[in-house]
TrEMBL record:
UniProt key word DNA-binding: no
Protein name per its UniProtKB record: ATP-dependent RNA helicase DeaD
Motif (Q motif): 2-30
Biased composition (Gly residues): 446-459
InterPro entries: DEAD/DEAH_box_helicase_dom, DEAD/DEAH_RhlB, DEAD_box_RNA_helicases, Helicase_ATP-bd, Helicase_C-like, P-loop_NTPase, RNA-helicase_DEAD-box_CS, RNA_helicase_DEAD_Q_motif
Source organism of this protein record: Salimicrobium salexigens
PROSITE patterns: DEAD_ATP_HELICASE, HELICASE_ATP_BIND_1, HELICASE_CTER, Q_MOTIF
Bias-annotated ranges (Polar residues): 431-442, 482-491
Helicase C-terminal domain: residues covered: 213-373
Domain DEAD-box RNA helicase Q residue range list: 2-30
Keywords: ATP-binding, Helicase, Hydrolase, Nucleotide-binding
Any one Gene Ontology molecular-function term assigned to this protein's record: helicase activity
Region entry Disordered, spans: 429-491
Length: 491
DNA sequence: AAAAAAG
């Protein structure tokens, strides 16, 4: 076990670490902090929840010169919430050193942000807003000595790579670049190395990609039975905090609504909500005012919410990397966690792919019956009731209890109390918007060269016959064809 | 095909 105080860190940093309750390094920190301090470019890969932020944050803060004005350290993150979280952690680490970190993301006030940029040595940004600042020339980047791509494989993925290239072009060439993620597919790592200066690669050795303190399960289930299965599992597991991942924004809304109807404290989060709503939902979740967060992949990466005990993949994720990150929202900092993935029969291949990447077997779980779910709720109620006796002062209630016992059977009283601690779930049918099965995507089409351009691709698609609920035909398709052109003009 | 990210 290596301690932070053996790494040659400055006093203010050590003091901050001490204040945060950190004494020993995690493996990724032990290996990358010295490299970072020596000025090397680094590609760091380590499991979720093992302290990557401090691994790059500490060397970055150590290198800040308070005499210099302008941004000196730049971190780029894939979501706004993650940018905020990383900036918070860097601020804690930099507190005693007087090094300040600013989250910079879309949806926040521009004028205020521009003013704040002058007072912060480190910026943690999402790509869109950062580029906005670069183009308006409202950010000073000539002094950047350290740049970090957090969730690097995601940042170098198709949706982000062009933005990232543009951003890196705006930075001094003489600088240090650090890349961190839990996952790093080969193709992406190759791209990464072209952007770096003979990087040192650090992979914390552990054969599995997921941490061992997460128990992973799946249930094989038809689409239309998913929702009932989810509520039954929730009743049996009684998670402290759970995240339910859905494949689309619409599904997230629908599942969150349906959970509320059944009496769960749940809310949805996805990229179509206002930033204010996104933040308030997340805050509620962290404070335990809601127990279930229903989310798109906006919440898949990086978010560190310590008490998440369960992750449900209501829809199995598109790629195995996404799976690793999603389930990594639980089992953080050494705690126990559980993940349950819903797999339709035709998605079994996808599960095999996941097992191959993570080198871990995912165990099958039977879908519980309605009765078992009721029993589950009751067991939880019993626990709650008995814990109440141990944990709380219930003396003020004892006179009422005595009065009641004069009138009624003790068994009836307790039964009634237990019933009050459970919720009756009406399993009425829930209509959810359909999801496109994953199996249709790898099978064809995705060969680099020709993306199906202008309506021409239609003929070919028609052979697919995978789904008859997607009318694209020229016939009964009132004025919808323009969607095609818009969708295809991506590049 | 989805999601994220500027306004």
């Amino acid at each position: 076990m290596t301690k932070f105080n053996s790494l040659g860190l400055s006093d203010p940093i050590l003091k901050a670490l001490d204040h945060m309750g950190f004494e020993e390094t995690t493996p990724i920190q032990e290996q990358t902090i010295p490299l970072g301090m020596e000025g090397h470019d680094v590609i760091g890969q380590a499991q979720t929840g093992t302290g990557k932020t401090a691994a790059f944050g500490i060397p970055m803060i150590e290198k800040v010169d308070k005499q210099v004005r302008g941004v000196q350290g730049l971190v780029i993150a894939p979501t706004r919430e993650l940018a905020i979280q990383v900036a918070e952690e860097l601020n804690r680490l930099g507190k005693n050193a007087g090094v300040r970190s600013l989250p910079v993301y879309g949806g926040s006030n521009m004028e205020r942000q521009i003013r704040a940029l002058k007072n912060n040595e480190i910026v943690v940004a999402t790509p869109g807003r950062l580029l906005d600042h670069i183009r308006r020339k409202t950010i000073k980047l000539e002094q950047v000595h350290t740049s970090v791509l957090d969730e690097a494989d995601e940042m170098l993925n198709m949706g982000f790579i062009e933005d990232i290239r543009d951003i890196l072009k705006a930075l001094p060439t003489e600088r240090q670049t650090l890349l961190f993620s839990a996952t790093m597919p080969k193709e992406i790592r190759d791209i990464a190395t072209t952007l770096m200066n003979t990087p040192k690669e650090v992979k914390t050795k552990s054969k599995e990609m997921t941490v061992s303190n997460i128990d992973q399960y799946y249930v094989e289930i038809a689409e239309k039975h998913k929702f009932d299965a989810l509520t039954r599992l929730l009743d049996i597991h009684a998670p402290d905090l759970a995240i339910v991942f859905g494949r689309t924004k619409r599904r997230v809304d629908e599942v969150a609504d349906a959970l509320q109807v059944r009496g769960f404290r749940a809310e949805g989060i996805h990229g179509d909500l206002t930033q204010g709503k996104r933040m308030s939902v997340l805050k509620k979740f962290k404070e335990g005012r809601i127990e279930i967060l229903v989310a798109t992949d906006v919440a898949a990466r990086g978010l560190d919410i310590s008490d998440v005990t369960h992750v449900y993949n209501f829809d199995i994720p598109q790629d195995p990397e996404s799976y690793v990150h999603r389930i990594g929202r639980t089992g953080r900092a050494g705690r126990k966690g559980e993940s349950i993935s819903f797999v339709t029969p035709r998605e079994k291949d996808q599960l095999n792919l996941i097992e191959k990447l993570t080198k871990k077997k995912v165990d099958k779980l039977r879908v519980p019956s309605y009765k078992e779910a009721q029993k589950g709720q009751q067991d939880i109620a019993v626990t709650k009731l008995t814990e109440k006796m141990d944990a709380d002062d219930i003396n003020d209630y004892k006179q009422s209890a005595r009065d009641l016992m004069d009138q009624y059977e003790a068994q009836d009283l307790v039964a009634a109390a237990l019933k009050m601690l459970t919720v009756e779930r009406q399993e009425t049918p829930v209509r959810l918007s359909s999801v496109q099965p994953i199996s249709t995507r790898n099978a064809k089409g995705a060969k680099g060269g020709r993306s199906n351009r202008g309506g021409g691709g239609q003929g070919r698609n028609s052979q697919r016959g995978n789904s008859n609920k997607r009318p694209y035909n020229k016939g009964g398709n009132k004025g919808r064809s323009k969607n095609f052109n818009q969708n295809n003009k991506g590049k």
